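User: Reviewer 2 asked us to show a designed sequence for the structure in our supplementary figure. I'm pasting the C-alpha cells here. Could you produce the per-position amino acids so we can include them in the response letter?
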C-alpha cells in the first residue's frame, strides 16, 4: 500500500461525503439504499438521507409508521445503508443499529422543519404497500404526524471501497472500544 494512503483521512472524507449527500439533492449519496431484514430475508429500498452526525455516528431518514420497514426494524434493528458515487467511484456500506422516533421530541422537531408538501406524504389514508384500486393514490388531506417516523441509525461499521484502474482500494472501519478501528481489506 502506498505510503500516502491514510485511513483517518479516508474516514473523514467518507463522513464529509455523507454530509454533502444529505445537504445536496443532486449528490449521489442523497438517495442511498437502506436494507433491513424481514421475514422473507433481505429487504432493500431507496430512501432520502435526512441527517448525518459524524460525532454520534448517526444517519437518519424519514418514513411512514405503517410501512413494512418499520415492522422489520422493530423485529431486527440492524440496518445497512448502501451509497455509490459514480463520479468518485466510491462505494460506502454503512451498517448499524436503528432506532425509531415516533411522536417524540426528535420526530416533532423534524416534522416542524418539514414543508407542507413533504408532510402531505404521511397523510394518505392507505398504508404504504396496501392494495388499492387507484394507481395514483396521492397525498392525503390528514395531518400525517401520527404516521411520521424518523429512522436514526447508529453506525458501527463502514466499508469503504474505491474503484481504480490501477487497482481497487478498500478499508473497513469498525467501532470498537469507543473509537473507529480502521483496517485495509482486500477489495
Ligand atoms: C428516490 C426515492 C426516494 C425515496 N425516499 C424514501 C424515504 O425517504 N422514505 C421512505 O420511507 N420511502 C422512500 N422511498 C420509497 C421506498 O423506496 C419504498 O418504496 C417505500 O418506502 C416502501 O418500502 P417498504 O415497503 O420496504 O417499507 C423513496 C423512493 C425513491 C425512488
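Assistant: Here is a per-position design you can include in the supplement:
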Amino acid at each position: 500500500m502506498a505510503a500516502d494512503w491514510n485511513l483517518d483521512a479516508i474516514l473523514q472524507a467518507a463522513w464529509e461525503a455523507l454530509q454533502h449527500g444529505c445537504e445536496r439533492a443532486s449528490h449521489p449519496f442523497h438517495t442511498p439504499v437502506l436494507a433491513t431484514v424481514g421475514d422473507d430475508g433481505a429487504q432493500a429500498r431507496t430512501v432520502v438521507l435526512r441527517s448525518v452526525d459524524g460525532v454520534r455516528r448517526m444517519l437518519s431518514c424519514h418514513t411512514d409508521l405503517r410501512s413494512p420497514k418499520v415492522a422489520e426494524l422493530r423485529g431486527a434493528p440492524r440496518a445497512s445503508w448502501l451509497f455509490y458515487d459514480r463520479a468518485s467511484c466510491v462505494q460506502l456500506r454503512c451498517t448499524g443499529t436503528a432506532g425509531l422516533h415516533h411522536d417524540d421530541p426528535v420526530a416533532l422537531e423534524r416534522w416542524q422543519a418539514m414543508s407542507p408538501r413533504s408532510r402531505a406524504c404521511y397523510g394518505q389514508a392507505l398504508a404504504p404497500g396496501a392494495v388499492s384500486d387507484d394507481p395514483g393514490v396521492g397525498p392525503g388531506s390528514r395531518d400525517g404526524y401520527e404516521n411520521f417516523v424518523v429512522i436514526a441509525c447508529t453506525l458501527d461499521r463502514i466499508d469503504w471501497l474505491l474503484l481504480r484502474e490501477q487497482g481497487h482500494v478498500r478499508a473497513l472501519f469498525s467501532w470498537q472500544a469507543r473509537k473507529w478501528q480502521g483496517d485495509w481489506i482486500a477489495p
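For the response letter, you might also mention the following. The radius of gyration is 18 Å. The chain has a mean pLDDT of 94.
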